[in-house]
Amino acid sequence: MTVSLSRLTATAGLKYLLKTTMQDDLIKPLGDSTSYYVKAGTPQGQWLGRGLNGIDRKLLQPVTKPDAKAVFSLGQHPDTQTVLGRPHGQTTVAHRNGEEQQRHAVAGFDLTFSVPKSVSVLWALADKDIQQQVLAAHHRAVESVLAWLEDQVLHTRTGRNGVAHVGTKGAVAAAFDHWESRAGDPQLHTHLVVANRVQRRSDGAWTTVDSRTLYKAVVAASEHYNGLLLDELQRLLGTEADFRPNIDVGRNSGLELTGITEELIREFSNRSRLINAETDRLVQLSTSEHRRKPSATTVTKLRQIATLSTRQPKDESPRPLMELRAGWQQRAIATGQNPRTVIENTIQRSRQRPVRSSDISLKWNDAVATMVRDGVAQRRATWNRWNLLAEAERICAGIRCQTPEDRRRLIDSVTVAAASQSVSLNDTRYRLPVNAADDLEYAGHTVFDFPGARLYTDASTLANEQFVLDARHDTGGPTVHAAVAIDQLVSYRHRAGYGLAPDQLAAAESVLASGDRLDAIVGPAGAGKTTTMAAIKAVWEYAHGEGSVVGLAPAAASAEVLAKELGITAENVAKWLYESVGQGASNRADRFHTLESIPRTSHTAAAAQLAALSLQQSLWQFRKDQLVIIDEASMISTIQLAGLVHQVRDAGAKLLLVGDPAQLDAIDAGGMLGWMHRDGKAVELTTIHRFSHSWEGPASLQLREGIIDVVDLYTTQERIQHGDYTDMVENAYRRWSADLRSGKSSILIAPDNETVTTLNERAHAELVESGFVDAEYTVILADALTAGRGDTIIARKNNRRLIDSNGEYLRNGTLLRISKRPHRDGTITARRVDTGATISLSHVYLGTSAELGYATTAHRSQGITVDTSHIVLTQGCLTRELFYVGMTRGRNSNTAYVCESNPALDEPQAGGPTASWRQILGEVLAAEGAERTAHEVRAAEIAKGDTLQRLAAEYDYLAQLAAAENLTSAISKVMPDVVTHLQESPSWGAGVATWRRAIASNPSAAQRVLEGALRHPGDAQDHMAVVQARLRQAVSNGPLEASPDVLDERLFTEHADLADMISQVRTRTINRRDRVTREALSVGAPWVNELETILGHTVRTDRWATAVREVAIFRDCWEITTSTDPLGPVPASYEWEQSEQRASLQRLIQSLMEDPSNSLEQGVAALPAPIVRQPLIHVGPTL
After folding, report:
1. Per-residue pLDDT at 152 exceeds 90
2. Contacts of 700 (CB under 8 A, 6+ apart)
3. Structural domain contains residue 941
4. Comparing C-alpha atoms, which of 763, 769, 772, 707 is closest to residue 735?
5. Of 144, 141, 143, 148, nearest in space to 119 by CA
6. Distance of CA 597 to CAs 292, 607, 803, Å?
7. Is residue 571 part of a domain?
8. Quick one: 1085 and 1044 in the same domain?
9. What does DSSP say about strands 828-832 and 815-818: parallel, antiparallel, or unpaired?
10. Could you tell me the CA-to-CA distances from 266 to 121, 201, 246, 254, 269 in Å, in that order?
11. Residues 775 and 801 occupy one common structural domain
12. Between vectors from CA 1068 to CA 1065 and to CA 1070, what angle results, nearest 5°?
């Protein structure tokens, strides 16, 4: 991704970015805009964004250190020091356990725009003129993306719970250019720092950015930037681009400039190049000192020293660009390429005419929109506008556009069409009034209907999900007689000698005897899912014969494990579908039809081939009464699962899903196993058998649920270490290595590929030093590391043409140990770690599809069980599911090594204080990555669409607008000259809220208090604060009144758009109240039954119905959904309004219990209005 996003805190802000700029530029503006070419440091930052008028700065004006400190660190106007909205807060107290935690205010967001590597290479090798044009293209693309963000993404939220999405005047941003990566490679990139302060269009009040939307849109912004940059480069330099496979194993292809070779890209992309250079230097020093070339073992030690010495923070005083360019050119020459020739081969080669948006036909637009929808639907069960925009940019990446406006119109047109072809999961709720004001309209919709929150799916996704779920209710599947199943399960013994635990026996019995076409078993890590499957297999074959159980798994390696564990034939799902109904089956069908047309003279030969083809096809078909077990079923996509259900149903077989939705999910659209589990349509294993320590099973279940408090238990048991990145990586390695030396099986899990490489290199070096690995004769692997005899490597790609001595093909994830010295042609002979079978691998496979195999990622560790597990954790790298997998692999121990700093990052952390280890773990446990099905998402959206709590928040927002209008009018009649001054006060929002309550209680008294406060404010600095305080006192001294009801409050407004919106909200409120009442009376929810039990059966029907209505409205207002107590749990002490309403309902219930014949109105009189809101939020500059 070429655009990344990170937070900046108020305490540190831009320290790093300001340190790297030319220091004298912080004092005076540059006399020459290209002075950075010869001066040390990077150029001075420049102000960008449409919101600069708010801080009295101009576009492209230099950013000085005092200005940056004022805006980003202090949240102040750089000239007047006026606080922009609410002051930056720092410390809050977390309610959990009363524990105080330091939290630093978000001052801004660092959007880092990095050009593709080939563009960096072009820029690095070019002369000054072309460098300027590349930089100009980059700057224009950055500025265009910022404009796009301001139009479609950057907004603020206001009202209770941020119910209203409101437009802003634009961003306040500062752009800082940087030239190189930490490794010294050319990496042209710009840090665009967007202040977390924006002005509302409606009233100019300063508020904060809706960061959730910004994070959701960052991928779309990245793809948009890529397209804009290539457009600009073609326009300025005539470049072309072509798709290249990524040099990293398993990464997607991307566009790079035609003319920039892969060799050059590797030269300037691989950190190993820097390590190699430092290793060569150390070797030369050693040779000079000892007068002989060091041995291979010594060279490996020197490489370790080089690895550590080059892993240093990025230089905060960069060299002049001219000096950097000279060094980069020398590196290019060293690879045998002439920089001038490279430039000539890259620029002025395009003959493609850039398109305008007007060139696009409706037919083309719809066709591309279909591709966009299908592309997103393949990877996701549900999606939003940002997903469609990103996919549209990817599909249109090869199209060059005339202007940024043309690209935006083209992409928007395709995206709108793709959205229209999708199935909406949450409809627009309100009609936008005519000529709606800025406080009621945003992005063409009402402020309550933000387009970016719309969710979509595909009709085929819904159909596939429903088809799979329907199979769960299909009772026509094969079965085992219940008595036979019980008898066999009770007597079953695993090959290790133990029988089934009670939950395993119950799950197996349920599956065997159910007769359902589709069954599912869900169990956490270590619950004995494999044991349960083995028992089911044994009983099923007892009843239906040998070979009546087949296995499927998401990957070839896991299918091989399943086959060995259960003693059955197993295959990976993708291969099965390819051969049974996919291209493999199609190819056989074509050959079959060709053979059928052969003349009778060749009948015998043709018949023999036809018979062979028919047999091949039959091997990829399920048979009647077969049981098909899919292991790790959460990783199977919905479309794959639907295809398998079709085959099982047609064959008269049965499908069993086994897995854990709390572990790894499908790469493509999935979530079916989790849905079945949450919907009560899966049997569950509950007892943990894996761990040798009794505390670890229950603790692992809390990790699975994301409960942060369990971290304390793991800490007490010394299962969590924390510290610097380098120390943690080293500690994890040493503990893992020590476990292996003591004869234990162990796994070393890294958070990312770079750390995997670091750990692999560390292991290789130690093995070389110990003499176990021969470093004299080595081969180069895909991770750019070397391997020799004795090294363990891992295959990263399936290859069915590479067959080992046991006749098994090479699977992704297979571990191999190099058993002989590599041959002269680079071929090696290796032995499988698991089976001992030998295999020969060519230098081509090794260089593209094999890596050192000591460390692994959490993705590749699922399904592995060992004695001990060691997992390194860095901030932002793992989800809860991945962490849970890593912390449950070991039987005897599972240890996490939490890195509180990570110098492996290309940029030092500009955002401020390093996160604590507990904060990092908290973020990981909160990061749930499991996908929900489209059906679940639709149900959730419907459930939250019109709750009374949401409607009350929307009504409050509108009522505040009306009250502000009314208060402004009242002030204007008394002292019109102070209106603007009062509206700009931080107390304006609180004053409006108090005024609203005051006029509802006693309009004439409120008017008298207002006039007195306006005419006699005293010597207070904040006039509005005086008005608010006196109004509040008047309300407090008067009779206690309930908050105005949505349907009864008298609101005055002269604006037709506001009156229209209030009317729409009230209509929805009436409908919602009626709906929750009907549902409560008809469905018979547990809380209704409990209320009936409390009241008995003597209450009159009409009084019973009214009581249920009041309670149902109360529950919907406060989102009480699970409690069986009619009034829900006792609210927290600060929820005073909920507490008051709950107490009133308790009095009503008590009165009906004591005397059912009492008039219901006597009880209702003590009730507040049915709709009661939380304390009114401020609407004004304080937000």
Report:
1. yes
2. 524, 525, 526, 688, 691, 884, 887, 888
3. no
4. 763
5. 141
6. 75, 11, 35
7. yes
8. no
9. antiparallel
10. 10, 48, 10, 14, 5
11. yes
12. 110
Phi-psi region of 745 (alpha: psi -120 to 50; beta: other; left: phi over 0): beta
Q: Which of 188, 192, 183 is nearest to 8 (CA)?
A: 192
Domain-terminating residue out of 314, 346, 378: 346
Three-class DSSP labels, 1058-1074: HHHHHHHHHHHHHHHHH
pLDDT for 526 = 94
The total number of structural domains in the chain stands at: 7
Contact residues for 942 (Cβ-Cβ < 8 A; gap 6+): 426
Cβ-in-10-Å burial (0-12, 13-18, 19+) of 929 comes to exposed
Measured CA to CA, the distance from residue 383 to residue 84 in angstroms comes to 35
Token readout for 71 is: 């805006």
Q: CA-to-CA distance for 538 and 394, rounded, in angstroms?
A: 50
Q: Same domain, yes or no, for 7 and 107?
A: yes
Please state, in angstroms and rounded to a whole number, the distance separating the CA atoms of residues 955 and 953: 5
Give Cβ neighbours of residue 775 (< 8 Å, ≥ 6 apart).
296, 297, 299, 300, 768, 786, 788
- Specify the pairing of strand 746-750 against strand 866-873: parallel
Q: pLDDT (tens digit, 9 = 90+) per residue, 285-319?
A: 777 777 777 776 677 667 667 666 665 555 556 68
> pLDDT category, 902, cuts 50, 70, 90?
low
| Separation between Cα atoms, residue 560 and residue 569, nearest integer Å | 9
Amino acid symbol at 1144: S
Contact in structure between 180 and 114 (CB atoms under 8 Å): no
Same domain membership, residue 866 and residue 850 = yes
Joined together, the tokens standing for residue 431 give 């009609």
User: Mean pLDDT for the chain?
Assistant: 88
pLDDT, tens digit, for every residue of 423-475?
A: 999 989 999 999 999 999 999 999 999 999 999 999 999 999 999 999 999 99
Residue 1167 has pLDDT above 50, yes or no: no
List CB contacts of 512: < 8 A, sequence separation 6 or more.
479, 480, 485, 489, 536, 539, 540
**Single pTM value for the model:** 0.89
Please give the average per-residue pLDDT across 377-394, as a whole number. 96
| Residue 654 and residue 568 share a domain | yes
* 459-472 helix and 638-651 helix, angle to the nearest 10 degrees: 50
Let me know: does 195 contact 107? Beta carbons within 8 Å: yes
Residue 631: domain span = 462-580+623-684
User: Where residue 646 sits, what CATH number does that domain have?
Assistant: 3.40.50.300
Residue corresponding to tokens 């069954």: 519
1012 within domain boundaries = yes
Six-digit token string for 399: 């199209």
Q: What is d(CA 289, CA 313) in angstroms, rounded to the nearest whole number?
A: 30
Instruction: Output the pLDDT for position 157.
Output: 96
Q: In which band, very low, low, confident or very high, does the pLDDT at 896 lie, cut at 50, 70 and 90?
A: very high
In what helix (H) or strand (E) does residue 9 lie, and over which residues does it extend? strand 3-9
Q: Give the mean model confidence (pLDDT) for residues 569-587.
A: 94
Q: Verify that 451 and 486 share a domain, yes or no.
A: no
Q: Please list, residue by residue across 62-87, b when 16 or more beta carbons sit within 10 angstroms of its beta carbon and e when fewer do.
A: bbbbebbbbbbbbbbbbeeeebbbbe
Distance, in Å, from the CA atom of 668 to the CA atom of 375, rounded to the nearest integer, reads 10
